[in-house]
Design goal:
The complex is a heterodimer of chains A (151) and B (510). Chain A is mainly α. Chain A contains 6 helices and no strands. In chain A, α2 packs across α3. The relative contact order of chain A is 0.15. In chain B, 77% of the residues lie in helices and 2% in strands. Classes of the chains: A mainly alpha (151), B mainly alpha (510).
Chain lengths: 151, 510
């Protein structure tokens, strides 16, 4: 059987969805409560990494295909930069051009919320891709790689 | 509208668009990267005429907000970085075809350019650190891009030593922040001059030593040079050209100049400035001597060029260091101006001829399949254009009049004599001849001499590879002959910006 034991798999299936929701909460409320794009993105990525650890990389990639992760990786960074460029229309790079909104409301703080979302996509997908890159080398020991090199 | 942030934003956008489009369109890098670097090169040339300016990020004024400062020194580096980047990208189009994963290559390349442009434009110590890390991490990956054992080892060595340097820099920045309570360079400089004057603060002395070590490692000054002779030859030729041509200068020399002249106030004789100036001169002389001596014995073409980079960076640092010492001891301003001008002139000259030589080594390797000089020889008939550009590059760097290297070394040596350092001037002059000696060896073993078995089959490289060589060769000759045309436009503003620390504070803080 691929992956870890049935107990781990069952628990992972239960909690993975909640971890994603919690991560999304950290991202969306980053400008009101402690947290933000980076922390939330890492938490969301952790849900997929947990799936990869428990079920193996095939299941994780069926939930979040590698290509989609690559697209989110670049698109997140581009969105961040795009918001910065938008500030140029107001005269300065990264000028807060969205209006401040009402205090303690979800849609407030101008461009901080969209920036947090962009960072979350970038960080979350990057972390997932880094982990999946490490997983490729997991089964091949260093000795086997050296022996291949010599052969 | 102030376009200074675009020097960072344009390559950064390209660095993310290229891999995004690259998922569906394999040629995204080969189309977007040349366009983007061409735009940057044109922007850099346009920037030369512009007066010094400050851009407040997000509309927040310094010292609270982050500022991007473009003065004469930044402009000089911007020109070097963006033109060498453009030429290297054009060279990459054909040269890099033998590698796989090209979208990643172009993305990392643009990320490196973004990092370097950020370093030279940042007005903030911590942002210098961040951009320096962006450029360094991209270059670690690019050095190991071939993923052979040798390249991975070189990349890993560069990664470890570079990380040590980064830790030093972070520690130094932390110390400066603890002492002055600010990270904006102009604000730190004002704070240091107001609170300490000409007395020496031991914490700042420690921070200065850390800065000199960290940036010195990025610049490959001699006690910290160990990574360079592995990293520069192992990288693909366009990356070697970028690393030797501009990375060691923008991350190393430029940062040393900015931090010591403008933040620590060496130019205005602040406390400890004589110690810093002496250390710069000592590292410079060590680099000239060891770089020169180690280059003579090399038979790997690119490794010889790498050791030569260490020696030539020594010359740049000597000019800057002598200028700093004259200013710190309250000597004649004209002597300091001459020394700094010599150093900066050698900086752009070296950017031109060293990137030319590394690109031509790539052309030779592309055509013959080797960079071992024992197996090369007699390329002048089979590869006439490459041979001519190699000849022009070696004559320029060896300091043969009337090429550019001669004038910059002459200015540095005259300034060193005028400052009264006769022994150092004698060493610098002697090692100018050592430079000539090992470049004569390059000419004899590569361009002239008998035709070897490998060279018989060699043919001239395609136009996309020799046109960049011709462009850089013209720049080398132009820098030698046309000082009146470009000197007042790019070199003298850089010199004046470096010599006048208080002007920088006024520019940023208003």
């Amino acid at each position: 059987m691929k992956g870890m034991t049935l107990i781990v798999k069952t628990i992972t299936d239960f909690v993975a969805g909640f971890i994603v929701i919690f991560g999304a909460y950290i991202v969306l409320y980053g400008h009101l409560t402690p947290g933000g794009g980076f922390a939330g993105g890492v938490i969301v990525a952790c849900a997929f990494i947990l799936l990869m650890l428990a079920h193996g990389s095939d299941v994780a990639f069926s939930k979040l295909p590698e290509k989609v992760a690559h697209v989110m990786d670049s698109a997140g960074a581009l969105a961040f930069l795009g918001i910065g460029w938008f500030g140029m229309t107001m005269g300065f790079f990264f000028m807060n051009s969205f209006g401040r909104g009402e205090m303690f409301k979800l849609f407030s703080s101008g461009m901080i919320l969209p920036l947090n979302i962009a960072v979350a996509f970038k960080v979350g997908s990057s972390l997932f891709l880094v982990f999946s890159a490490l997983a490729i080398f997991r089964r091949r020991s260093f000795r086997a790689m050296i022996e291949d090199e010599l052969a | 509208m102030n376009l200074v942030p675009l020097f960072v934003a344009v390559p950064l956008a390209a660095a993310f668009i290229i891999p995004l489009l690259g998922i569906w369109w394999k040629k995204s890098g080969e189309v977007l990267a040349p366009v983007c670097t061409a735009i940057l090169a044109i922007m850099a040339i346009v920037q030369t005429g512009a007066p010094a300016s400050v851009h407040h990020m997000g509309g927040w004024a310094p010292p609270v907000g982050i500022a991007m400062v473009s003065d004469g020194l930044s402009t000089l580096l911007l020109i070097a970085i963006n033109i060498v980047a453009f030429v290297s990208i054009i060279f990459s189009l054909k040269y890099m075809r033998v590698y796989t994963g090209l979208t990643k290559y172009y993305a990392l390349f643009m990320l490196m350019v973004a990092g370097m442009n950020g370093v030279v434009l940042s007005g903030d110590l911590f942002n210098i650190y961040v951009f320096l890390e962006i450029a360094s991490i991209a270059s670690y990956a690019l050095v190991a891009f071939g993923v052979d054992a040798e390249e991975l080892e070189a990349g890993f060595k560069y990664l470890i030593l570079g990380s040590v340097a980064s830790v030093m820099l972070l520690f130094a920045i932390g110390t400066v922040y603890a002492v002055t309570g600010s990270l904006n360079m102009a604000d730190v400089a004002r704070e240091i001059s107001v609170r300490f004057g000409t007395t020496m603060n031991p914490a700042l002395l420690l921070a200065g030593a850390m800065f000199l070590m960290g940036f010195g490692l990025k610049a490959a000054l001699v006690p910290f040079h160990a990574w360079l002779p592995d990293a520069h030859p192992s990288a693909p030729a366009p990356i070697s050209a970028m690393l030797s041509g501009v990375v060691i200068k923008s991350l190393g020399i430029y940062a040393i100049c900015r931090v010591f002249f403008h933040v620590f106030g060496v130019a205005s004789g602040a406390g400890g400035s004589i110690i810093f100036a002496n250390a710069m001169i000592a590292f410079a002389v060590l680099s000239i001597v060891l770089g020169g001596l180690l280059a003579i014995g090399q038979w790997d073409y690119k490794r010889l060029l790498a050791y030569s980079s260490i020696g030539q960076v020594g010359y740049i640092m000597l000019g800057i260091g002598v200028g700093a010492r004259v200013l710190a001891t309250g000597g004649q301003l004209s002597v300091a101006a001459l020394a700094i001008l010599g150093g900066l002139f050698h900086l752009i000259n070296h950017a031109a001829f060293k990137s030319l030589l590394f690109l031509s080594s790539g052309a030779v390797q592309h055509a013959t399949g080797t960079r071992d000089m024992k197996q090369l020889g007699g390329l002048r008939e089979s590869m006439p254009i490459t041979s001519w550009t190699i000849n022009l590059g070696t004559l320029s760097i060896a300091g043969v009049p009337p090429f550019s290297g001669f004038w910059s070394k002459l200015i540095i040596i005259i300034a060193t004599i005028k400052a009264g350092h006769y022994a150092i001037a004698a060493v610098a002059m002697a090692f100018a001849f050592v430079t000539l000696a090992y470049y004569v060896k390059v000419q004899r073993e590569v361009v002239f001499g008998s035709v070897t078995k490998l060279v018989e089959k060699a043919r001239e490289v395609p136009a996309l590879m020799y046109v960049p060589l011709i462009i850089l060769a013209i720049v080398c000759v132009g820098f030698g002959l046309l000082y009146p045309v470009f000197g007042a436009r790019i070199l003298e503003p850089a010199r004046d910006a470096l010599m006048n620390g208080t002007e920088y504070i006024q520019l940023v803080l208003g």
